[in-house]
């Protein structure tokens, strides 16, 4: 149990004094980039889904 408590103490000390945390403006810029990237990715996947669906429907309907 002593090793576990030492681990948590060392972790807290590392997070407080040795980690370089980004500023608020850096976090906002990064969050904006992630949001824009996610939206672009969602649009691309949506377009691919719709196009594959229409191609497969046309293919399956050709055998009716």
Automatic annotation (TrEMBL):
Gene3D superfamilies cross-referenced by the UniProt entry: Preprotein translocase secy subunit (1.20.5.1030)
Record localization: Cell membrane; Membrane
Cross-referenced Pfam families: SecE (PF00584)
Keyword Membrane annotated: yes
Annotated TM spans: 31-52
Membrane topology according to the record: Single-pass membrane protein
InterPro entries: SecE_bac, SecE_sf, Translocase_SecE/Sec61-g
Keywords associated with the record: Cell membrane, Membrane, Protein transport, Translocation, Transmembrane, Transmembrane helix, Transport
Keyword field contains Transport: yes
Subunit and partners: Component of the Sec protein translocase complex. Heterotrimer consisting of SecY, SecE and SecG subunits. The heterotrimers can form oligomers, although 1 heterotrimer is thought to be able to translocate proteins. Interacts with the ribosome. Interacts with SecDF, and other proteins may be involved. Interacts with SecA.
Purpose: Essential subunit of the Sec protein translocation channel SecYEG. Clamps together the 2 halves of SecY. May contact the channel plug during translocation.
Protein family membership: Belongs to the SecE/SEC61-gamma family.
Protein name: Protein translocase subunit SecE
Species this chain originates from: Hymenobacter frigidus
Gene responsible for this protein: secE
């Amino acid at each position: 149990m002593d090793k576990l408590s030492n681990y948590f103490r060392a972790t807290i000390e590392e997070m407080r004094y040795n980690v370089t945390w980004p500023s608020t403006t850096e976090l906002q810029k990064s969050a904006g980039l992630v949001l824009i990237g996610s939206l672009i990715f969602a649009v691309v996947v949506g377009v691919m889904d719709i196009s594959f669906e229409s191609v497969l429907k046309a293919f399956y309907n050709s055998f009716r």
